[in-house]
């Protein structure tokens, strides 16, 4: 993580997405990175060929920007990865958000090393199959970056320096197993600094892990680090300025209900981890407007612009809808309940602007088609118009972030109402108006009640990569919900 810059992260993800369906993606990705002076070539001793992709792809899956290739064989960006490529989320926001969301247990680190396996011999955990299961069984449920925030804030309250060294990480923080341990951890650090007992070191391996965490956290907007050989982590000026808001975010992220639960750590469980950790999540309070670190710019590929479809040039007549059958892509046959945003991933659609929007449109269209519905689109206005059992559904799709959610919700409402009005001149079928967001929206969100009850419309969202319907309409439930297996 010490090598990561906005340019490095953007270009390796762009190349991975662009060349993902080529005959030899690693070679094409490596050539692109070398030609654009990104990362290091990392020439292999055995072949004499550069292999930066092999060495650095882990960064993308660690951050939840692509699905691990142990889970999906191809190279598939997550919704969050597509949002980064689209320019709807910037570098500092991605790093801050993912640092705060990263948890143990998770579906990425699952292998138990030989060293750990030897340490477990003779214990009740000797036969545990994965690291995620070990954490779950032993009560580990922690978000380390949230723990760090709490400890630094508590040290300040105790009158101690609000800073953490590698020793502090290795000796104290890495002994914590839940976020509730932060208070005792801060007290122990404060006591040690003032002549009290000092806990023993846990070894060089843990020390290296502590150094890696500091390298990662200093890339966020809320932490800073000074010193190369002996770094000291502190709250950034941005973190201090927005401390109250970040306290609220950390409180939300400490809720056990927000944690991924490992289950049996099957492939399906791990896929669910990447879909959840790699999704855009509106259940987390909005991050303050993140400032770029000095010398960095947030949007390497440019910031996303609003989709201007539906802004009819002829405002006098009010515009018109020109429908055609949905021009999707040919996908392999699947059962309806198997449809997820990663299962319908299209590199063709994902190589143009508004990637996440287009993938969400495709997911909804495929879901409807496999229910026997007829699906139409208008590239100039309506995202989707679906006819099913003598009823129409007008669907407007938006990719959103916590910051632009209200503005895009309002825009979507205006669009779908306008399209509904225009449709009355050509169709007498009853219609449902549907707004879809390529993000996780919890059932208790104010927006669900607003759209469902007050506006009498339906809402579609993403939940761990799958469509989630918020609606009181039986017709909508029949169309959008998966078939029971």
Please give a structural write-up.
It is built from 18 helices and ten strands. It is of the alpha+beta class and 485 residues long. It has three domains: 6-87; 141-259; 324-480, Trna Endonuclease, Chain: A, domain 1 (3-Layer(aba) Sandwich), CATH 3.40.1350. It has a seven-stranded mixed beta sheet, with helices on both faces. It has a three-stranded antiparallel beta sheet with strand order 1-3-2. Helix 8 crosses helix 10 (182-193). The longest helix is centred in the C-terminal third of the chain and has 19 residues, at 405-423. The protein is globular and about 80 Å long. The model has no long low-confidence stretch (mean pLDDT 91).
Question: What topology emerges from the helices and strands here?
Answer:
Elements: H1 6-18, H2 25-35, H3 52-62, H4 79-86, H5 91-101, H6 114-120, H7 131-137, H8 144-157, E1 163-165, H9 166-171, H10 182-193, H11 204-217, E2 223-226, E3 232-235, H12 237-241, H13 243-253, H14 267-277, E4 324-325, H15 355-369, E5 374-377, E6 384-387, E7 392-398, H16 405-423, E8 431-437, H17 446-454, E9 458-463, E10 466-470, H18 474-480
Parallel strand pairs: 7-8, 8-9
Antiparallel strand pairs: 1-3, 2-3, 4-5, 5-6, 6-7, 9-10
Helix pairs in contact: 1-2, 8-10
**CATH architecture verdict of the largest domain:** 3-Layer(aba) Sandwich
Residue runs with pLDDT of under 50 for 5 or more positions: none
The backbone outline, from C-alpha atoms, is globular
CATH topology (level 3) name of the largest domain: Trna Endonuclease, Chain: A, domain 1
Q: Helices and strands: which structural class? A: alpha+beta
- What's the pLDDT, averaged over the residues? 91
